[in-house]
Each structure stands twice: as structure tokens, then as C-alpha cells.
Design a protein that fits this description.
Chain B: Its main location: membrane. The complex is a heterodimer. By secondary structure, chain A is an all-alpha fold. Chain A is about 70% helix and about 0% strand. Chain A folds into two domains: about 150 residues, no CATH class; about 120 residues, no CATH class. Chain A contains 15 helices and two strands. Classes of the chains: A mainly alpha, B mainly alpha.
Chain lengths: ~325, ~100
């Protein structure tokens, strides 16, 4: 076995266990074990388990982000110091000072590399499980011959086998052999959906859940530019990866989107658009508890009249105002 | 001669640059340290070569968990530094390039 295979072995085992576990569960409740939908739902189940396991890490990150408010003045000072300096050395010095501040105050808002480290190999493990299944090869553990065969040839929406990729069908098509056009279509649609969900998640964060300070930082602007690289990456993987892997990725993206939506609604970054919206919402319901540091913005409900107000001269306005004064 | 000695680490530099250009942006900033884990590993490999550099990188990634304090964490430098780093990140002998 090669080096990467050895590292992935335990992960492949766990991925297979989760897949087969969900598959058995669905079978137990009376679903057809060979049906595409059963295996597709098993992939969704895998996403749910993995992402649910990562929730505590995510919550911790959110809490840290909330504590950012305490260091906002110091952070602003650093940003002001390097305002307009775009050369590499100033940027580096700024990142250094920011990190130093986070450490000193214990308010590091970043999630650390561990969650990625958990997710990426799972992704590769799923990829290799599906790739092996493509050649009807049994997995390393719970996924035996029969199940591997079944999994690989299970069909998404009843037409597109999970182990097929855009590239594999393309090769068949160009060499004049029979191919499944649906695989290509579905792969294309998935790329579009993934790009859309990623953009929507980012847009939510940027437009609603960022304090003005963060928006002004050069790091943020850099990140924005990189966002436009994503569709390229998705398009590339959409061509090369089996549908099953793409489906895992898409489900995971949708999870992120919903999770982000809930967080932005219920625990927004202080000082952001979403925080103001939440306070206004709570205030309307009369449920607002003011905590230290909360910015309470109560907006007067605007009087809405559809009738156009007649222009009037100053004299007439005075005359009209006099009798009505006491009454209104 | 030097080029042959430096070949493995320059190959690793290309790989890491590729990772930083294509895969890193997918996740945005996550690292609790400065420099980030991948930048740290890149520098470590430039400074110490593939074997020791990757080792340092793995140790760093292991440190980067949600309970870590984070902060500034630079690559330990060698006492005698014989090489130069090009803007792209390739490691070359001190005399090479500029002449």
C-alpha cells in the first residue's frame, strides 16, 4: 500500500462504516437496498454526521467572534496605523500585530486548521471509496463486494450512476461508445448549484454579518477577489469527480449555507447589519434584553401614507396650524 | 550540484504554491497563527528541506486546533543560511540569479 493509502485507510474505514450504517438503517425501514435513492440518502446521512460532529467547533468560533467587540478599539487602532499601506511588508506587519492582539486578549476569531483537516481526508476517502466502487472493488472494511457494486451502480434520480463522472462519459461519447448524457447534465447543474450556494453563503456573511471595521480591512478585500476563483475550482472538479463525491460536496455546501443563515439570524456579529435587524425584531416583539455592549437601535416606525401631501404656502400653513394646534 | 540538492524542496514549493492558490481560497482564513499553517510549512521547507520542513509543518498543523491560543509562530531559522529565496518561492544558491 502506498503512503497516502495508509493514511487514508482508517478514514476510509469510518466513511464506509457510516455509509453502510445509514444504508442498513434505510433498508430496515423498508427501502429498496439497491435503489439509487437509498444510497443517495446514505451520502446525505454521512454529511449530517460529519457536520454535526463539527458543530461544537463552530459554536466556539462564533463565541470568539462575539468577543471581538471587546478588542474592536485596539483593532481599529492597528488598521488605522496601516491605512493605505498596501505593500507586502506593511500588510505582513499588520497581520502580525493583529494576531498578537488576538493572542494577548484571547479573542482569536479564527476556527483553526483542525476542522479542515478532518473534512478534507473524509472527502478524499469518499472519493477513493467511490472510485474503487467504480471498478466494483470492495472497500477496506464494512463495504463488501456486493455493497460496493450496489453503491457504485446506484443511480441518482434513477438515471445517473453515482460512480460516473462528466469526464468518463465524455470519453465514451468521443470514442463513439454508448454513454449517459444525464450524467453530464447533472454534473453541470451541480456545479452551478455549488457555485450559487457558495456565493450566497459568502454574500450573507459579507452583506449582513460583518462589522464595518472588518469590511475595511485589506485582508477582506483580498478574500473577495479569491471568491471569484471558486466557480473555476467547482467546474474543474465537476468534470473530474464522480457524481457521488459531487453530491457529498453539494450537500455539505447546503449545510453550511443553512447553518450560516441560522447563526446570522440568531447570533449575529455585534455591530453588523444582521445584529441591528435582530435587535429591531426583538424590540418589536418586546423581548429585547439589553446586555452590556449591545447596540440598541430602535427605529421609529415610519408613518406610511399613500396620499400625496398638497403643497401649501407659508401663510396658509400658519393659518391651518393655529386652530388644530391643541387638537393634534 | 546545488540545484540537485535543492530540487526536492523546489518541487515541494511548487506543490504548496499550487495548494495556496487553488485550495486555500476555498476556505478563506482559518488559521489561528501567523504565518498560516501552509505559509509556515512553505517557509520551513525552504529553510530546512523537504524532510525536516514537512516534519515542522505537521507539528504546526497539530498545534492549530480550536483550543490553541494562536498568535505569532515563526519558522526556526538555521544558524548558517546558505540559500536565497526568489519572489516565487524557489530556493536558489546565494550567488545564482543576480550574479
Amino acid at each position: 500500500m502506498d503512503l497516502i493509502g495508509t493514511i487514508l485507510w482508517p478514514l476510509k474505514w469510518v466513511v464506509e462504516l457510516l455509509l453502510v450504517g445509514w444504508h442498513q438503517l434505510f433498508e430496515a425501514i423498508g427501502m429498496d437496498p439497491a435503489a439509487g435513492i437509498t444510497w443517495v440518502l446514505s451520502i446525505v446521512g454521512l454529511v449530517v454526521v460529519v457536520r454535526a460532529a463539527l458543530i461544537p467547533i463552530f459554536v466556539r468560533q462564533i463565541k470568539n467572534q462575539r468577543r471581538m467587540l471587546e478588542v474592536a478599539p485596539q483593532l481599529k487602532k492597528i488598521q488605522e496605523k496601516y491605512k493605505g499601506k498596501k505593500d507586502q511588508f506593511s500588510r505582513e506587519a499588520m497581520s502580525r500585530e493583529t494576531m498578537e492582539l488576538y493572542k494577548k486578549t484571547g479573542t482569536n476569531p479564527l476556527s483553526s486548521c483542525l476542522p479542515l483537516l478532518i473534512q478534507m481526508p473524509i472527502f478524499f476517502a469518499l472519493f477513493s471509496v467511490l472510485n474503487d466502487a467504480q471498478h466494483s472493488k470492495a472497500g477496506v472494511g464494512p463495504l463488501n463486494d456486493t455493497l460496493a457494486e450496489q453503491f457504485g451502480s446506484a443511480k441518482l434520480f434513477g438515471i445517473a450512476p453515482l460512480h460516473d463522472s462528466f469526464a468518463s462519459q465524455w470519453t465514451l461519447m468521443t470514442s463513439g461508445e454508448p454513454y449517459v448524457a444525464a450524467v453530464m447534465w447533472i454534473a453541470g447543474v451541480m456545479v452551478v448549484l455549488m457555485t450559487a450556494s457558495q456565493f450566497f453563503t459568502q454574500l450573507q456573511i459579507v452583506s449582513k454579518n460583518m462589522s464595518p471595521e472588518t469590511k475595511a480591512s485589506p485582508m477582506f478585500r483580498q478574500q473577495r477577489v479569491l471568491l471569484y476563483l471558486l466557480p473555476l475550482v467547482f467546474a474543474f472538479s465537476g468534470v473530474a469527480f464522480p457524481l457521488g463525491v459531487m453530491f457529498y460536496w453539494l450537500t455539505s455546501n447546503i449545510w453550511t449555507m443553512v447553518q450560516q443563515f441560522i447563526v446570522i439570524r440568531n447570533m449575529p456579529t455585534p455591530g453588523s447589519e444582521a445584529a441591528k435587524a435582530r435587535e429591531a425584531r426583538l424590540a418589536r416583539k418586546g423581548k429585547l434584553e439589553a446586555k452590556d455592549g449591545d447596540i440598541i437601535v430602535l427605529e421609529e416606525p415610519k408613518k406610511t401614507t399613500t396620499q400625496r401631501q398638497q403643497p401649501m404656502s407659508k401663510d396658509r400653513a400658519k393659518k391651518q396650524a393655529k386652530p388644530g394646534d391643541a387638537g393634534s | 550540484m546545488t540545484a540537485a540538492v535543492l530540487a526536492p524542496r523546489n518541487a515541494a514549493v511548487v506543490l504548496l504554491r499550487g495548494y495556496r492558490a487553488v485550495i486555500s481560497p476555498l476556505y478563506g482564513d482559518v488559521c489561528r497563527y501567523y504565518p498560516s499553517c501552509s505559509a509556515y510549512t512553505l517557509q520551513a521547507i525552504q529553510e530546512h528541506g523537504v524532510v525536516i520542513g514537512s516534519g515542522l509543518g505537521v507539528k504546526r498543523i497539530a498545534r492549530c486546533h480550536p483550543w490553541a491560543e494562536g498568535g505569532i509562530d515563526d519558522v526556526p531559522l538555521k544558524k548558517v543560511r546558505r540559500y536565497r529565496v526568489t519572489p516565487f518561492g524557489f530556493v536558489v544558491a546565494e550567488s545564482q540569479g543576480k550574479g
